[in-house]
Amino acid sequence: MIRTKSGVLVPSAILAALILMAVAPAAARDKKLLWKPVDQVLLKLNNHPVKTWNVLQADKNRNLVLVQLLNDWYILNLKEKRAYKVDRKDFDSRGENLAGPAPDKNTPVAKTDGWDSHDIGPAQQITVKFADTGDVLAIELPHPLAIY
């Protein structure tokens, strides 16, 4: 038991729970995902190849895709059909991988006019039209190999 300034006795377990509730949101915010490069990706912007690009996928969540287009970085949430604009400075290099945050309520959403995703056999084809620029991003993301 701990006595407060007002003289009230507070059980230690309750005090510990209150401290954890205050600290947990900060810890969740600081949790970083491991983003791994995806091999054999096809990427086009406005139906043309891009000089500088990269595509990585979250290690534990295959619905999150990190895309570098020249100097712009986006996280695509394939399940929610939402694009987020992110800053490269939020990601740390770990060899060929990156460590960085998953999108949350504070991550700026990139407005999109259209979103299409469908299976084309060996890959998932994702097409996103960005509302602010009118640019159309097309990605063919290979399905993971099923080894039996």
Search tags:
148 residues, mainly beta, 46% strand
Task: Summarize this structure briefly.
Helices cover 13% and strands 46% of the residues. The chain has 148 residues and is mainly beta.
Question: Describe it for me?
Answer:
- With 148 residues, the chain is mainly β.
- The chain folds into two domains: 1-30, no CATH class; 33-142, no CATH class.
- It is 13% helix and 46% strand.
- It contains one helix and 14 strands; from the N terminus they run E-E-H-E-E-E-E-E-E-E-E-E-E-E-E.
- The strands form three sheets. Strands 9-10-3-5-6-7-8-11 form an eight-stranded antiparallel sheet, with no helix packed on it.
- The longest helix has 19 residues, at 12-30.
- The model is unreliable at 15-20 and 22-29 (pLDDT under 50).
Present the secondary structure layout.
Blueprint (H helix, E strand, L loop, with lengths): L1 E2 L5 E2 L1 H19 L2 E5 L4 E4 L7 E6 L5 E6 L2 E6 L4 E5 L5 E3 L2 E4 L8 E2 L1 E8 L3 E8 L5 E7 L6
Antiparallel strand pairs: 1-2, 3-5, 3-10, 4-14, 5-6, 6-7, 7-8, 8-11, 9-10, 12-13, 13-14
Q: Count the helices. How many?
A: 1
The number of E-state strands comes to 14
Radius of gyration: 21 Å
What is the CA-CA span between the terminal residues?
57 Å
Strand content: over 45%
Quaternary organisation: single chain
Give the helices and strands as they follow along the chain: EEHEEEEEEEEEEEE
Main sheet? 8 strands, antiparallel
Number of domains: 2
* Structural class computed from helices and strand pairing: mainly beta
Spatial order of the strands in the main sheet? 9-10-3-5-6-7-8-11
Percent range for helical residues?
A: 10-25%
Averaged pLDDT? 84
How would you sum up the global shape? globular
Low-confidence stretches: 15-20, 22-29
